[in-house]
Amino acid sequence: MQFNSFSFILVFLPVILLAYFLLSRIHPIIGKLVLILGSIYFYCAEDWKTGIFLGISVAVNYIFAVLIRRLGKPKKLLLFLPVLINVGLLLYFKYTNFLITNLNKWVGTDIALRDILLPVGISFFTFQQIAYLVAVYRDELENVDLLDYLTFILYFPKLLMGPLADPVNFIGQLRDPERKKFRVEGLVTGIKIFSFGLFKKLLFADVFALAVNWGFEHMDAATSMDWIIIMFCYTFEIYFDFSGYSDMAVGVSRMLGIDLPMNFDSPYKAVSVRDFWKRWHMSLTGFFTKYIYFPLGGSRKGELRTYLNTMIIFLISGIWHGANWTFILWGLIYGGFMVFDRVLDRFKVKPFEPFRWLLTFHLVSVLWLMFRADSLGQWEEILKKMLSLENLSVSPDLVKCFMTPEINYFSVWSTVGESLTARISNVWMWVYLAFAAVVCFVPENNYRNLKKLTVPSMLLAAVAFVWAFCSLSAESVFVYFGF
What residues contact 2, with CB distance under 8 A and at least 6 apart? Predict the structure, then answer.
């Protein structure tokens, strides 16, 4: 089930909210069962088969958590085994066919590809289980409670695409009796940020996705200018898509009385690559830092070791994102720029800040294009076409992607719309790009304004929800849904 669906907004969410708060008053355990059963239905609604693997994974990890808590000396081994199993299964599901393909290509073998069903959200719930096991190993949790564990892992607002939550913080909130009481403030603030997230997804991400998909479906027909525009379209698409989902997840969870961590902090305002990764997918960056970077030694063992650890983290990040050389190179390039930024900081080199911001934004955009490309060869081909500047015209079919029903109506029935359409070529495409840029570059992050319930902000949220809801027709998949 997706957040951007009629069934979720009109049926599932109201029923869960009502049942959770009413039944929690009878007994907290019943409230947890509502979240657990509701999350299972949420996950299995479209394909129950993927739920089988999730169920087995949850059972095995819980058994290891109990063993870690109860046994003494072999605790480190008991932590290593389930972490190894979790990572191994993640690599199996995501990388088996990638490995076979490359063996066939480079070694000359003829191994048949496997028919592997990738469990939805495997990357996210695998990392959450590792975080829980580590918390148990470090004695950060009072006890290994089955219902707390199931609620933490299966919690539907974060199950498919995060944000990744800290188990100690999450379970602490879950056990707080005050958070089980219905609060109007929680409902209102939750609806507010959910509305902004839904608007981001439907009115920005999905429209930019049309333009990006058109480009990749018409590689030869797209001009140099088309590809420059498409590059920025994907830059905006992936942000509004994933940020929109994170806003909706935080909003739904807020309605239930549980605070999820901030996942985005205006990343396109970043003035360096290091700054960007402090703002983009912050929960994943935090996970890698806490569970991999620090155990490797972090920045405590000299400069060369720090640079090596940084490269390892970004190589792992690239592998985590997908089974393609594009993701691996994407991670390594970012690791290289992270090291370069550290070197500049060491020598206190600080170029003019607007220049740093402009350079960072364009670098990020070019690398997002690699993230979206099917292969390194395709990415190289696109870059060559862009840099050649051989044709600076914009294809009419690309422009049509931005002609939403609202724009069509405004341009036909409004005097201002008619005038703009007649005077400025491709005006609505440029308006869309400009509006997206303003939203990314100017206002403060939604999460930071979460509890500000001013009249203007609530009116804006109401308009955003109604507009997005009226635009909701077919359920569209999120970019990170496959991770």
Answer: 8, 475, 476, 477, 478, 481
**One-letter amino acid identity for 312?**
I
Q: Model's pTM, two decimal places?
A: 0.93
Backbone angles phi, psi at 298, to 5 degrees: 55, -130
Q: What is the mean pLDDT of the chain?
A: 91
Residue with tokens 């148990």: 136
The amino acid at residue 328 is I
What is the Cα–Cα distance from 147 to 111, expressed in whole angstroms? 43
Confidence (pLDDT) at 423: 58
Note whether 368 and 321 are within 8 A (CB).
no
| pLDDT tens column, 250-289 | 999 999 999 999 999 999 999 999 999 999 999 999 999 9
Catalytic residues: 321
- b/e map of 437-454 (b: 16 or more CB within 10 Å)? eebbeeeebbbebbeeee
Please choose, from the candidates 349, 347, 316, the residue with its C-alpha nearest in 3D space to the C-alpha of residue 330.
Answer: 316
User: By C-alpha distance, which of 357, 303, 309, 356 is closest to 335?
Assistant: 309
- Asked if 224 contacts 391 with a C-beta cutoff of 8 angstroms, the reply is yes
Q: Which amino acid is at 67?
A: L
Residue 294 token pair: 């620090």
DSSP letter assigned to residue 348: T
* Mean predicted confidence (pLDDT) in 406-431: 69
Please state, for a pLDDT cut of 90, what percent of the chain lies above it.
71
Specify whether the CB–CB gap between 128 and 164 falls below 8 A: yes
pLDDT at 88 over 90: yes
Structure tokens belonging to residue 152? 């933490």
Token pair in block for residue 12: 């599932």
Residue type, 179: R
Per-residue pLDDT, 61: 96
User: Exposure pattern of 218-235 as b/e (b: 16+ CB <10 Å)?
Assistant: eeeebbbbbbbbbbbbbb
Q: How many CB atoms lie within 10 A of CB 435?
A: 13
Residues near 127 by Cβ (< 8 Å), separated by ≥ 6? 164, 284, 287
> pLDDT tens across 327-367, in order?
999 999 999 999 999 888 777 767 778 899 999 999 999 99
Helices of type H across 271-390: 273-279, 282-288, 303-321, 325-346, 353-372, 376-388
Q: Does residue 379 come out as left (phi exceeding 0), alpha (psi in the -120 to 50 range) or beta?
A: alpha
